[in-house]
Predict the structure of IceA1-like protein.
Amino acid sequence: AQPDKNGVSCWVSVTEFVGKYQGLQLGNGGNWCRNNSSLAKEFNLEFDKGQTPGNSIDRIRLNGYNVRCVFNQSIHQDIKNHYKQQCCAMCGVRGNSENTQIEVDHKDDRKDDSRVSDLSTQTFDDFQALCKACNDKKRQICKECKETGYRFDATKIPGNHYPFYEGVAEYAEYDGCVGCYQYDPIQYRKTCNDRIFNKGYQIGYNQKTIL
């Protein structure tokens, strides 16, 4: 749909993405309408999920020109080279198939930190290695977190004893990602393993003193 002089278009139903527009079908994520897409850099995208039951997007329109500062997703080459050689921080895989190829992931999925956006100030610790499958899953989990206001509970994964390695369930704009399993699964495992070890040590110490 063509926008008017103010950058506003009519609503377009996702059912219209057929024929020569089939490439616009949302599928897994809808790359063309993400916040970092070329379209979103020029226009404000508005989504309507109220036409059908569930949480899927039913209609999309352009709602004015984007005058906000756009996050630069470029990653320093040294950082990319480093993480491309790593295995996935979540599942340990690293392969050649589409879903097992390593992607360099921004730990903070909000992508609103100007320091991380700047190639000269971003650090290795701002990123992690994830396979495409895990990165896709993380993207959906982060989206749900921002929509519901509650962070991902890591105890949903069998064997995990703590929901977060830092912070609480409520998502907060100022530090909502830090402490989440999705933000840094390696740090989650380190911190939680230390907690379990220290807890066991304390129990053993108490039992010894009682004896």
User: Anything to note?
Assistant: Residues 12-65 form one domain. The first helix runs from residue 38 to 42. The radius of gyration is 21 Å. The mean pLDDT is 87.
